Amino acid sequence: MKTWDLSDLYTGFNEKYQSDMLELEHLFDLYVAFIRSHPQDDIEFIEGYISYHEKMAGLARTLSSYPGLVMSTDVTNQEAPQYMAKLQQIYRKSTAEDVLFSRYLQTVDLYLLSSKSEIIKKYLFLLEREKEDAKHLLSESEEIMYSKLRELSSGSWSRLQGLTTANLPVSFRDKEITLSEVRNLAYDNDASIRKDAYEAELKAYEAIEDQVALALSNIKREVAVMNELRGYDSALSHTLFSSKMTRETLDAMIGAMMDYRPQFEKYLQAKAVYLGHKNGLPFYDLFAPVGKLEKTYTYEEAQEIVKEGFYSYSKKLGDFATKAFDKNWIDPFPKKGKRGGAFCSNQPQLKQSRIMSNFTGSLSDILTLAHELGHGYHGEIISDNEPLFWSYPMPLAETASIFCETIVNNHLLSMIKDPKERLSVLENSLQGDTQVVIDILSRFIFETHLFEKSQGPVSKYQLKDMMIDAQKEAYQKGLDQDVLHPYMWLNKSHYYSAGLNFYNFPYAFGLLFGKGLYAQYLKSPKTFLNSYDDLLSLTTKATVEDVAKSMNIDVTKKDFWLDSLEQVNKDIEEVCKLFLVK
Question: What pTM did the predictor assign?
Answer without folding.
Answer: 0.86
